[in-house]
Amino acid sequence: MSQNHHQSEIEKLRRAMEKELSTGRYTHTLGVAYTAAALAMAHAEDMEKAMIAGLLHDCAKSMHGSELVAICEKARLNVTAVERSNPTALLHAKAGAYLAERKYGVTDGDILNAIRYHTTGRPDMSRLEKMVYIADYIEPGRKQNRDLSLIRRLAYQDLDSAMEKILADTLAYLRTTDGQVDDMTNRTYQYYKR
Length: 194
Description:
By secondary structure, the protein is mainly α. Helices cover 70% and strands 0% of the residues. It has one domain (3-144): Orthogonal Bundle (Hypothetical protein af1432).
């Protein structure tokens, strides 16, 4: 596929997300897409795939929880009790991967998995999956937290170290806010913990 073909596909997806998402969510989406592409460049990975996954990672985020549950059921995707209790935060990734394939024509399994696992992660993630997960956390619009500048630095040096730090921070935050922790997030942390 030519460079121009990739660019026109990316531009089509960018325009679709601009229409589909709120202004704030669209700005975040662009931040994730460009950050994922920068990480791909730094780690000698496919920038176009990173850009596409970043653009589509939140394509289902503006949907209501009941719509997300319905999409997951239609796609015969397992929905856990924790996901049902907070569908917008947790199911938008699974539903987003389904929409990326069905609505936006993405066939690359690595891109689809990067979208599907960008909220919980999973053990033994591909490099693209890690880059999108990390980009979602470190993109320029993210509010400062205690370790954000360290994580941003780590992301360009060692993806696994960045994963461990993000997961540790996420779990600590969820514990202090009484947020429910998806089992996959715990399993992912155990995998990346050193």
